[in-house]
Amino acid sequence: MAAPKPLVIWRFSDAKPGHENQTQGLVQALVELTDVKVYDLSPLSFKQASKTILKKSFPIEDRMPPSIIIGAGHATHLSVLAAKRSVGGKSVILMKPSLPTRLFDYCIVPQHDGLKERNGVITTLGVLNRIKPSTQHDPGRGLILIGGPSAHYDWHNDAMLERIRMIVERDTKQWVLTTSRRTPENFVEQLQQLALQNLDIIPVNKTGPNWLPGQLQYSGQVWISEDSVSMVYEALTSGADCGLLPVQRKRDSRVSAGIDQLVARGRLSSFDDWMKSGQLVHNEVPLHEAGRIAEYLLKHV
User: Fold this and answer.
1) SS3 sequence, 59-86?
2) Which residue of 25, 144, 177, 184 has the fewest CB atoms within a 10 Å radius of its CB?
3) Does 36 share its domain with 144?
4) How many separate domains does the chain show?
5) pLDDT at 99
6) Residue from 34, 13, 71 nearest 301 by CA
7) How far, in Å, CA of 93 to CA of 257, rounded?
8) Residue 179: helix, strand or coil by DSSP?
């Protein structure tokens, strides 16, 4: 008997880390469910993609024809359409597209982007990511993820440092803290001056691409600064109990409304609630949106 054919995926990448994380998360979830063959492609230029759409001439070369064509990032949209028109397959965009949603078979869109679910549009809690729910969490290990100023948030070192001090001194487990590319340069120096004995500080430039997934696999509790929205959803996906370090908002937005809903639904603890109870809400049902979407796609391709 001939072996069953694999699910063939063409994945268009614009090389941006956030978009890579989303597409890799979906591909990994599909790999866990079925036999998969993945081809990674760079997007065509606007001129090339437009010509390819008209001529149905996307080069297949030595690749197998796709069952699913995945793209994240506006630069991938026309290339996804060009490939579908030329060689078939279901088109899947992992964001609110810049083109009409009806042009794609499926648009996987975070709820905070404001699109309603309808035929071909599936909403998710946060963007997809490559974190997997873990059963190896150690209640004696904690993780703190720090962001920095952004378009939506102001940043005040003193306020964040004081909250970190309160957490680490009140909960004497061993903590690991890392920063992001947005963290102010003097933040780590000021944090080191607090001399917190049960806190290890590992700046982002000392970590690699697999460092955070590894930490989330074992850390029983995770605190995330509110501006680091993608890391909030990654931590919740891991299954850890999660707390939110508040950061001053410049204005309310759909993104911040999504974070508020997580707190209201009991998925995420606010700092004020933790101050009152000393406990983080238990993450009984980890998010695994990449897995949910992968299962849906397999039923419809």
Assistant:
1) CCCCCCCCCEEEECCHHHHHHHHHHHHH
2) 184
3) no
4) 2
5) 93
6) 34
7) 23
8) coil
Is 74 inside any structural domain? yes
Structural domain range at position 28 = 7-128+290-300
- Residue 164 confidence class, pLDDT cut points 50, 70, 90: very high
Q: Is 42 within the bounds of a domain?
A: yes
What whole-number distance in Å separates Cα of residue 142 and Cα of residue 172?
Answer: 10
Q: H helices of 134-288, where?
A: 157-170, 187-192, 211-218, 229-238, 254-264, 271-277
pLDDT band at 2 (very low <50, low <70, confident <90, very high): low
Best CA proximity match to 14, nearest among 37, 44, 35? 44
Does residue 229 contact residue 256 with C-beta atoms inside 8 Å?
A: no
Q: Which amino acid is at 147?
A: G
pLDDT confidence of residue 57: 93
Do strands 106-110 and 121-124 pair parallel, antiparallel, or not at all (unpaired)? parallel
Label the pairing between strands 199-202 and 174-178. parallel
Verify that 47 and 117 share a domain, yes or no. yes
Tokens representing 139 are 């209640």
Instruction: Read off the amino acid at residue 135.
Output: T
Contact 136, 218 (CB under 8 A): yes
Cα–Cα distance, 176 to 202 (Å, whole number): 7
136's tokens:
């190896």
Mark whether 142 and 268 lie in a shared domain: yes
| Residues 154 and 69 reside in one and the same domain | no
Residue 4 phi/psi, 5-degree rounding, is: -60, 145
* Nearest-angstrom CA–CA distance, 233 and 119: 25
Yes or no: say if 201 and 145 are a contact pair by the CB < 8 Å rule: no
Question: 3-state class of 41 per DSSP?
Answer: strand
* Cα 52 from chain centre: 31
**pLDDT on residue 3:** 59
CATH code of residue 217 = 3.40.50.2000
